Amino acid sequence: MTAYTNLNVVPFVSVENMMRLVLTIGTETFLTELAKVIEEDFRRWEAFDKTPRVASHSDEGVIELMPTSDGTLYGFKYVNGHPKNMREGRQTVTAFGVLSDVGNGYPMLLSEMTILTALRTAAMSAVAAKHLARPSSKTMAIIGNGAQSEFQALAFKAILGVTDLRLYDIDPSASERCAKNLAGKGFSIRTCTSSQDAVEGADIITTVTADKQYATILSDNMVGPGVHINAVGGDCPGKTELHKDILLRSDIFVEYPPQTRIEGEIQQLDADHPVKELWEVIAGKRAGRESDRTITLFDSVGFAIEDFSALRYVRSKLKETGLYDDLDLLADPDEPRDLYGMLLRCEARLQSA
To answer: Which position among 41, 169, 203, 235 bears the catalytic label?
Structure first.
């Protein structure tokens, strides 16, 4: 491993090192610290470039690029979403990301983001609930017990103190796996036989299903006054989880409206239906929950600033942990204009070997 400050070598965080990093820091500490960085960046939301993600949709799924910059650092994430992958033994979502220096354009970090996206999504959900859910919330229903579910549970425990979980999935083995993975983590867990059973009495409802279709995971009669809904699974055109009537009864909070109106639950509503931007709540520019009876809805689709925060946080941990590899990614000729000379010197080395 060479010096961390060597501009011609890019720190690379592999899947193995990301797992080691999370475990070294501690999963709940990682989530809590990451949430703080996300809040820091949301408070300076106006400093960032913002654009809906660049998406390539197909019948099979979607591949997206998510870029942003604060004028000093530039970050982007490559991410896919292919629900059918699970049937083939593959991940539904995979990702990697880059953080660069705006001043010279050099990459400063290349990182896996499959695990990191799960962590940042969970941290973002808990940040939203911190500002929108009733302060006394302790019980959460998680509908859809796939790859994201354990991360959501741990984030809500670490950041909000949620201790009671109700789990439901159309595949009972998914709920059983989630409950087993979370055993001994400080939860009271009940696996449920229906969505209705799971949400009854819940303070917070998290929906995080994967099917790429309009779906009704929650119907209107299932949502009572005062509930906070964390709608994670509806995140591309044609993919929703909530009945439209729930939206019409809720105070809706979003990340970036131009993106959420295309991809989120609110794609079901008129283009001018009023929504509130979460960054304004976090920055103290707008009130969050209005009363204990208000239904609050975080229409989460994920936004590039959250990935920027995650990459920034990971990079801040590399010096102290050493959990990265040196990646020979950037050409480094002896004289910047003599790129071809590098080929000649490589040729000479190969011939003399």
So the answer is: 235
